[in-house]
Backbone:
């Protein structure tokens, strides 16, 4: 892979991470409780989901 394709892949993952984190942070409380998610852990959950 070239450096540009690596940068593009990293930018896509970062965008996905930010979108996932935002969705977790802003989900309604009743949905978060149903899914057993603490919205304060949004960064950790999003990081695991996107980067493994």
Residues:
């Amino acid at each position: 892979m070239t450096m540009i394709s690596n940068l593009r892949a990293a930018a896509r993952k970062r965008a996905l991470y930010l979108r996932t984190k935002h969705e977790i942070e802003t989900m309604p409380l009743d949905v978060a409780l149903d899914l057993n998610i603490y919205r304060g852990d949004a960064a950790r959950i999003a990081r695991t989901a996107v980067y493994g």
The chain has one domain: 11-51. The mean pLDDT is 96. Residues 11-51 form one domain. Residues 3-26 form the longest helix (24 residues).
